[in-house]
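S.,

As promised, the flavin mononucleotide run. Input:
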Amino acid sequence: MTDVRYFTGSGHAQEIALACAEALGEPALPLREPLRKNAVLLLVFPVYCERVPPPVAAYLKACGAERAVFIAAYGGMSYGRALYDAQTLFRGKVIAAAYVPTEHAYTQDGYPFGATTLVPLFEKVLSGEGTAVLVPKGRRHLLSGAPGLRSRLGVRLVRSSRCSGCGVCERVCPMHAMRAGKPNSRCIRCLSCVRTCPEGALSFRLSPLLRAYLRRRRKNETRLFL
Ligand SMILES: Cc1cc2nc3c(=O)[nH]c(=O)nc-3n(C[C@H](O)[C@H](O)[C@H](O)COP(=O)(O)O)c2cc1C
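Predicted complex:
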């Protein structure tokens, strides 16, 4: 029995969770949905600044699952220590994990996600085999410890005159950082507000520095820990 859960900003982790759910014959649900007793948690989340997004870090500490599989979607730049951090924050046993390359939320370069690379992971989950894996620490970027700062410096949220003040962005923001279409200092630039705004009134602009940094996709590898 597997509970597929996801956290997503711009939709990629949700897409991967749906593919996992299809392979495992279970629904894919957001983090707020409760877990079943004794179920294996299969959690899909994005890599943000080489780390676990703050809402996922909080979830990992509190979710109460005993066994978990982690799938971290990254945008082809670097994944740093995201899975290692998830393993450290989680109180139970990690039985499988994977880094999966996707389109980058900020460049939208159309890089396709392919579920076939995850087949060995699905096979392990379906077999019921529960041996623990150890995700190695990995290297991280100098600024990865300051995800809020790093994304705020490079990404500006723009609200157009189409904003009707409907409040959808306030409800979907995982950081409770939006007020009337404007972000406060808690915003981590996950773009969930941009994705869900019913008026299409929110967009984002990259700084020239971040645009230059993101110009070259560096990694396309899927990495499995089984
Ligand atoms: C705030 C933020 C930080 C990111 N940091 C990284 C990173 O350090 N390395 C990387 O390869 N991709 C990075 N990405 C790209 C995402 O990991 C990638 O686009 C992922 O698929 C997004 O998933 P989502 O659409 O479910 O939010 C970042 C994206 C955002 C929004």
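The pocket of flavin mononucleotide is lined by residues 8-13, 46-50, 73-79, 102-105, 151, 188-191 (CB under 6 Å). The chain has two domains: 2-140+217-225, 147-214.

- D.
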